């Protein structure tokens, strides 16, 4: 039987099950084996690897993962796809499909119960683009035992995720990802490898989880609020953005200025020029600054 990730077999499967795509669920299925193989080669998947997949669709990527990995657990929100996956993945006994919204899933429990004997657990996914950031944060904020992520996403989001300071794409998302992982773009992906083709270009990003976050902060909520606040209006200085972020900031501009100076950050700089270490110093300075 032909692989699922081919245009011919995909059409056959869709016809057989009378399946109609739901745009609102970001359903664009991969029909190109070369792209999948290239990513899986980079991901060093062995028979000791456990894989979590988000959104298996009709199983295009899942099938290739099942051929290489020890075990694959795939979360699919669309109930209509469950009988399809039962059918297409029936030759693979090492796949478990869970019919659940990934944003509601207890991933930690799944890691503990499903990957016995695996040397590592990684995430591989062609993500539903409408919730790329919430999904990544759902994984990263939980301090899970996941060592690496290989994820297809909208090109513009992938560029923001992997951006460095002083670039147009750099912002609070780049910093949040840098805090938890080391991110790098693997390749751009043309629209033609999907059925149906999406409206946007795609990119595959590799994220290697850090053993511990890049900077040490004891309140991540406050730290990320500081990084987001610095980019509230990109063209404004950090001082002006923080004057809006802090309660009574307008009247207390002098105090914010002093706090930034104490952190060694020129108040006239813009958020886009500040690295994660600068924000860590601002965070420390804010903590130690007298009320
Ligand atoms: N992996 C398949 C492939 O590459 O052909 C399908 C990828 S498609 C871009 C995204 C998939 O994610 C769809 O099957 C969609 O139903 C599923 N999905 C959307 N939102 C989801 C959610 N919140 N939780 C789990 N799966 C979701």
Provide keyphrases for this structure.
291 residues, alpha/beta, seven-stranded mixed β-sheet, two-stranded antiparallel ribbon, 9 strands, 39% helix, binds S-adenosylmethionine
Helix and strand topology:
Layout: H1 7-17, E1 29-30, H2 33-42, E2 49-54, H3 60-68, E3 71-75, H4 81-88, E4 95-98, H5 107-114, E5 120-126, H6 132-140, E6 148-154, H7 155-161, H8 172-180, E7 181-189, E8 194-195, E9 202-209, H9 220-230, H10 238-245, H11 253-262, H12 276-288
Parallel strand pairs: 2-3, 2-5, 3-4, 5-6
Antiparallel strand pairs: 1-8, 6-9, 7-9
Bound molecules: S-adenosylmethionine (SAM).
The site of S-adenosylmethionine has 23 residues, from strand 1 and helix 3.
Please give a structural write-up:
Its main location: cytoplasm. 39% of the residues lie in helices and 17% in strands. It contains twelve helices and nine strands. A seven-stranded mixed sheet has the order 4-3-2-5-6-9-7, with helices on both faces. The longest helix has 13 residues, at 276-288. It starts with 6 loop residues before the first helix and ends with a helix. The model has no long low-confidence stretch (mean pLDDT 96). S-adenosylmethionine is lined by residues 25-30, 54-57, 60-61, 75-78, 81, 101-103, 126, 128, 131.
